[in-house]
Amino acid sequence: MEGDPEMASRLNPYISFAGDARQAMEFYRQVFGGELNLNTFGDFGGMEGADADKVMHAQLETERGFTLMASDTPPGMEHQPGNNMSISLSGEDADELRGYWDKLSDGGTVTVPLEKQMWGDEFGACLDRFGVSWMVNIAQSS
Q: Coiled-coil region(s) at which residues (predicted)?
């Protein structure tokens, strides 16, 4: 909130879905853990019928400090998935990162297998079951 000295600035992914934001965010909660908050369009009295149950805003906050936000594309707007964006997970905790990789790639499409690359790290890329692009890089300890 503006003017709140306790609220630090942050940058995080915000993903638009074509009606399956709830399922996707529940999947990501299974992958990463944490607390998921969901609000539907109906929660704010803006819509009725089937669209009322669509997600207006979802936010997942994990114990590791990850924040992931999402929504369903509002009615009347076109959902345009693209290939110009990926979510990147990186670090040195190989077991943790492999665990995320296994869950994210399960039911999805592996585009680059998670294996040692020419720069010395383990790296993999996949599209998860919701069509979201992920990259995982496991840095090798010096």
A: none
Q: Model confidence over 55-82: pLDDT tens digits?
A: 999 999 999 999 999 999 887 888 888 8
Residues sharing a CB contact under 8 Å with residue 142, sequence separation 6 or more, in sequence order: none
What one-character-per-residue DSSP string does 87-111 give?
A: EEEEES-HHHHHHHHHHHHTTSEEE
Spatial distance between the Cα atoms of 62 and 17, rounded to a whole number of angstroms: 21
The secondary structure element, H or E, covering residue 26 is helix 21-32
CA–CA dist 1, 48 (Å, integer)? 29
CA distance 39 to 43: 6
d(CA 122, CA 46): 46
